């Protein structure tokens, strides 16, 4: 424009030049808004001058130089204070405004001050205009001088101009620092009016500086300092007011609130209490409403989840019951048809004999052969049509189950051809197929029992072929001179065991306590750990590792390790899906599960929860049967059971053994440890393995020949005494029998080896009946004559433990597979684990509700007590938040793995994927990672109301929860529950102390709490601009934070979560606590 061009010419070409001519021109344009706009542009143009210095010295607190400078010194909306200053100085404003060099000098004085006084109100260092030899009025606080006729360039960042002319009070809207003779515009958000002298105190209110004594003409000026709010808040627009310009202060209207340093008033949320001059809005009601809504949602989810599972179970039960009823009616109809067939067969036989007699008489009368009395051919009815009775009878003979000769209807539906297993998709079809097969198997078994034909192996095989039941791989385990020796202590726990476990037979392993029964079965299953194994083990006559068959080997532990928060059917169905062949149809898997449920007598409790210590479930005997059924549903070829009948009554034991007998008849190799079986159970076993103390064999052979063998040694079982109890009492030393001459209890293992012609170790040959060998220890072994030292024993125990862990790891990581069974891969198992863990979490909704309630209370307390402070950007409240969220979320994460370790060990040993298990647990816990921050912020944010948005706080807490959840996993897996809880409570407090006290150290950088707290403070500091700029820089510098590190903080938290999850997975795979 013409006016701007004229001013540029008058001011020496830059709008702020000097000299007499420029002064005269400036006075002619006093109060012109164009001049004020030009000055504003020149002030905005200083960013290019300061950019490099800001990036090098203040890059930690100023991210975007242009935007931050505009937020502080862009007076485009209101330049009235510039016009007023032009009038006050008679157009000499351009000669009084600080140049870039003077501004740089002022801020450097603040930055380069000592650590203790940094960012505090202080004097500026001596300079050209104000020093010991020259101290003019303009050096006093609130006063400034003109540069006179000099040409002043605001962009000059090197030389400070000499200012000593026409010293007067600083203009409103500017501040004049002590020991500087120029004026600096007050930043936006400041209120810099002209001060007034308080005659009582002699201080210029509201800036707290005194005019020089003895100079009555020296009046109070404007502001004298812009510094950290903790040092002085004189220039800050007070709370409850807003300052659209640096010389205007307006009260906050009703329905609005104004924080300290506000340039505009902020509208309150609807329904929130905001009277006039409100400092903050009261949004507690929104927090309460959000809590109520969250509680309602949680209650709905809790009730709906339980109802969802209940409805699903009822629907399945209804479909299952209908299928069972259909199968029973079909079986009954088939039985009725067989009965009618038998009657018809007998009647046809009688009719045939009668006709034969009639024909023989008619032939004597000379009638034509082949003609009936009525002249009809044989085999025709009275109408001359051929009778279908012979064809029908022959068809019945060939296919006794076929409905030949009539249309059979069950209920109101005609019998239809059922699709095959792989063609079935609906639940009703699958259940009809399964129960139909079970009813057929029952009918065949009953028919065989009626014909006194016990279900031999060949009979079962034929039944399997008839009903399309997949055959199992037969596995014969033979062992010769099998000896186990502890790696460290060299103690022999199993000695020279020779024998064979054959498919289709049930072997009972018995013996006194300490005889090595469980050790023997563990060695057979390839699970013996921490031992040196010698001898020969053959699988189907070949030297192969038994571990290669672990997918078809079932091992039932002594403890009932089944998930208590799942139903009986869910436990069995999960194992069937994960451990049966991947290509097996769903219908066939359902058939396997239903067959096991039926054989173990679990039908009445199939939909009942197994139960835990806190929640009662099924009975102990039923739980024991479920423990066995978990291994039966995977259709093993070898089934090993450790004391499956312990704690069961005689009826439950009989039911269990009958189920095992049925498995054996299908070709399964079954061996089990049994304590004190009844005589009925004892007679149901095929083979008996009797071990003496020290792991030596006393007898290994058929049950029918055991009494005959011991009778040959002079051991005769008295009348009405159970043979196994009597033999165990002898081996325990309770009973002293009258044996043959020269035979003692100690010699029984030797007698058995000599009886079968086995190789006898030399130490056993040298032993006598009076031998004092203890526990089967080798007398020639080290330590038999002299007790080992304490250190050697400790080292031996350590070696045993290390080798045990190594063997466990080798067993689980073995990749050789000879089982010919392709189980589901990791992704399918992940899906199965996901469904199971989801059900468990739904049934634990009450525990989650308690966690959420505690988080709500923590948010209320911390949000109320630790209010956000503008001076520290809420660092105190966020510190408490980091500690509280870390503690509560770690405790919640401990439950994911601490209580399920024993279940994982069993599932892992059976060949299930550890990665699928871990990932499923972590995936379900992501629900808490998302929801828990919402629950906490619903209280903390609305009670605390920081300047950062709720989304910014939510993102930080999500990253924090993800991080501490991974740490909780590690503690839960590596430590015992008590120690894990202690570490979870102690770690966040200690790390927070380190992060806040040991700033800018490597140790602090390793603490996740440092990054979480920095992310919170940075998110809040972004909203402090304008007059808060120095406060922000001072706070971030004192804490060692960088405003550009917000994304870095979030990524570090997420990376910590990933790293600790990897550590937790490694510990889960490598370490096992027994």
From TrEMBL:
PANTHER family: ABC TRANSPORTER G FAMILY MEMBER 28, TRANSPORTER FAMILY PROTEIN, PUTATIVE, EXPRESSED-RELATED. Coiled coil: none annotated. Pfam families: ABC2_membrane_7 (PF19055), ABC_tran (PF00005). Keywords: ATP-binding, Membrane, Nucleotide-binding, Transmembrane, Transmembrane helix, Transport. It is found in: Membrane. SUPFAM superfamilies: P-loop containing nucleoside triphosphate hydrolases. Residues 349-358 have a biased composition (Polar residues). Belongs to the ABC transporter superfamily. ABCG family. Eye pigment precursor importer (TC 3.A.1.204) subfamily. One of its GO terms (molecular function) is ATP hydrolysis activity. Gene3D superfamilies: P-loop containing nucleotide triphosphate hydrolases. Residues 477-718 form the ABC transporter domain. Residues 766-788 have a biased composition (Low complexity). Signal peptide: none annotated. Residues 345-404, 764-788 are annotated as: Disordered. It is a multi-pass membrane protein. InterPro entries: AAA+_ATPase (IPR003593), ABC_transporter-like_ATP-bd (IPR003439), ABC_transporter-like_CS (IPR017871), ABCG_dom (IPR043926), ABCG_transporters (IPR050352), P-loop_NTPase (IPR027417). It comes from Aegilops tauschii subsp. strangulata (Goatgrass). The keyword Ribonucleoprotein does not apply. The chain crosses the membrane at residues 283-305, 847-866, 878-898, 954-974, 1050-1071. It comes from the Eukaryota. Its main location: membrane. This is ABC transporter domain-containing protein. GO terms for cellular component: membrane.
């Amino acid at each position: 424009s013409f006016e701007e061009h004229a001013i540029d010419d008058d001011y020496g070409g830059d709008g702020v030049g000097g000299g007499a001519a420029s002064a005269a021109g400036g006075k002619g344009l006093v109060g012109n808004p164009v001049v004020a706009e030009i000055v504003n542009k020149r002030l905005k143009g200083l960013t290019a001058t300061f950019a490099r210095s800001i990036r090098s010295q203040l890059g930690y607190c100023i991210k975007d130089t242009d935007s931050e400078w505009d937020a502080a010194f862009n007076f485009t909306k209101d330049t009235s204070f510039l016009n007023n200053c032009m009038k006050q100085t008679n157009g000499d404003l351009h000669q009084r405004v600080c140049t870039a060099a003077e501004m740089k000098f002022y801020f450097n004085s603040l930055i380069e001050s000592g650590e203790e006084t940094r960012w505090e109100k202080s004097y500026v260092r001596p300079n050209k205009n104000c020093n010991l030899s020259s101290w003019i009025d303009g050096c006093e606080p609130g006063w400034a001088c003109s540069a006179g006729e000099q040409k002043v360039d605001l962009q000059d960042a090197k030389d400070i101009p000499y200012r000593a002319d026409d010293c007067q009070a600083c203009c409103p809207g500017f501040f004049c620092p002590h020991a500087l003779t120029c004026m600096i515009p007050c930043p936006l958000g400041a209120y810099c009016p002209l001060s007034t002298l308080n005659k009582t105190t002699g201080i210029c209110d509201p800036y707290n500086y005194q005019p020089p004594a003895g100079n009555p003409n020296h009046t109070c000026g404007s502001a004298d300092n812009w510094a950290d709010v903790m040092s002085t808040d004189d220039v800050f627009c007070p709370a409850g007011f807003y300052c659209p310009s640096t010389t205007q202060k307006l009260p906050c209207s009703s329905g609005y609130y104004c924080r300290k340093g506000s340039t505009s008033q902020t509208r309150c949320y609807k329904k929130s209490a905001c009277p006039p001059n409100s400092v903050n809005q009261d949004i507690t009601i929104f927090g309460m409403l959000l809590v109520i809504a969250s509680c309602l949602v949680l209650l709905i989810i809790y009730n709906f989840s339980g109802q969802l599972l209940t409805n699903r179970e009822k629907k399945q039960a209804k479909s299952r019951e209908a299928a069972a009823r259909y199968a029973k009616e079909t079986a009954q109809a088939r039985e009725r048809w067989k009965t009618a067939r038998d009657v018809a067969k007998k009647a046809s036989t009688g009719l045939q004999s009668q006709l034969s007699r009639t024909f023989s008489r008619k032939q004597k009368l000379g009638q034509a052969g082949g003609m009936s009395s009525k002249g009809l051919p044989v085999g025709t009815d009275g109408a001359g049509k051929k009778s279908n009775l012979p064809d029908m009878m022959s068809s019945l003979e060939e296919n006794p189950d076929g409905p030949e000769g009539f249309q059979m209807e069950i209920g109101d539906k005609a019998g239809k051809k059922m699709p095959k297993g792989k063609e079935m998709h609906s639940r009703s079809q699958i259940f009809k197929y399964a129960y139909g097969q079970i009813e057929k198997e029952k009918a065949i078994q009953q028919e065989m029992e009626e014909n006194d034909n016990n279900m031999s192996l060949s009979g079962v095989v034929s039944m399997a072929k008839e009903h399309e039941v997949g055959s199992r791989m037969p596995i014969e385990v033979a062992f010769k001179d099998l000896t186990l020796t502890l790696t460290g202590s060299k103690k022999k726990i199993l000695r020279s065991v020779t024998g064979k476990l054959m498919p289709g037979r049930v072997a009972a392993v018995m013996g006194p306590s300490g005889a090595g029964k469980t050790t023997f079965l563990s060695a057979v299953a390839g699970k013996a750990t921490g031992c040196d194994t010698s001898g020969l083990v053959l699988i189907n006559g070949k030297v192969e590792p038994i571990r290669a068959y672990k997918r078809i080997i079932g091992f039932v532990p002594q403890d009932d390790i089944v998930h208590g928060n799942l139903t009986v059917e869910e436990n069995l169905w999960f194992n069937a899906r994960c451990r049966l062949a991947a290509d097996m149809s769903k219908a066939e898997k359902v058939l396997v599960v239903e067959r096991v449920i039926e054989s173990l007598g679990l039908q009445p409790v199939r939909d009942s929860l197994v139960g835990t210590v806190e929640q009662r479930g099924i009975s102990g005997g039923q739980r024991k049967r479920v423990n066995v059924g978990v291994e039966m549903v995977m259709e093993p070829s070898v089934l090993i059971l450790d004391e499956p009948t312990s704690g069961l009554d005689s009826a439950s034991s009989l039911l269990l053994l009958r189920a095992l007998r049925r498995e054996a008849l299908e070709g399964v190799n079954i061996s089990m440890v049994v304590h004190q079986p009844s005589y009925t159970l004892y007679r149901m076993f095929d083979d008996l393995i009797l071990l003496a103390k020290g792991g030596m064999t006393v007898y290994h052979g058929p049950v029918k020949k055991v009494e005959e063998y011991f009778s040959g040694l002079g051991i005769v079982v008295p009348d009405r005494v159970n043979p196994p109890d009597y033999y165990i009492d002898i081996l325990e030393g309770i009973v002293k029998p009258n044996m043959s001459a020269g035979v003692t209890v100690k010699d029984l293992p030797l007698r058995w080896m000599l009886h079968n012609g086995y190789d006898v170790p030399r130490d056993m040959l040298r032993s006598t009946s009076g031998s004092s060998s203890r526990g089967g220890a080798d007398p020639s072994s080290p330590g038999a004559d002299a007790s080992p030292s304490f250190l050697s024993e400790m080292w031996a125990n350590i070696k045993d433990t290390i080798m045990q862990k190594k063997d466990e790891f080798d067993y689980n990581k073995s990749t050789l597979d000879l089982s010919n069974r392709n189980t589901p891969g990791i992704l399918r198992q992940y899906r199965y684990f996901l469904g199971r863990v989801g059900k468990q979490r739904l049934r634990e909704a009450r525990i989650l509700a308690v966690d959420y309630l505690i988080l709500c209370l923590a948010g209320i307390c911390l949000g109320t007590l630790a209010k956000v402070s503008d001076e520290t950007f809420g660092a105190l409240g966020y510190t408490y938040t980091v500690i509280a969220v870390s503690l509560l979320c770690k405790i919640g994460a401990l439950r994911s793995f601490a209580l399920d370790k024993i279940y994982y060990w069993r599932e892992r040993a059976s060949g299930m994927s550890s990665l699928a298990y871990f990932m499923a647990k972590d995936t379900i816990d992501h629900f808490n990672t998302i929801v828990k921050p919402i629950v906490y912020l619903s209280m903390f944010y609305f009670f605390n109301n920081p300047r950062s948005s709720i989304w910014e706080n939510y993102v930080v807490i999500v990253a924090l929860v993800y991080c501490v959840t991974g740490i909780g996993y590690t503690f839960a897996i590596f430590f015992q529950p008590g120690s894990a809880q202690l570490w979870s409570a102690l770690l966040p407090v200690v790390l927070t102390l380190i992060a806040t006290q040991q700033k800018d150290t490597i140790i602090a950088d390793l603490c996740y709490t440092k990054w979480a707290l920095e992310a919170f403070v940075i998110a809040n500091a972004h909203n402090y601009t304008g007059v808060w700029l120095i406060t922000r820089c001072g706070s971030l510098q004192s804490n060692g934070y960088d405003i550009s590190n917000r994304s870095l903080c979030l990524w570090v938290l997420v990376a910590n979560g990933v790293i600790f999850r990897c550590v937790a997975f490694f510990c889960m795979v490598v370490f096992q606590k027994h």
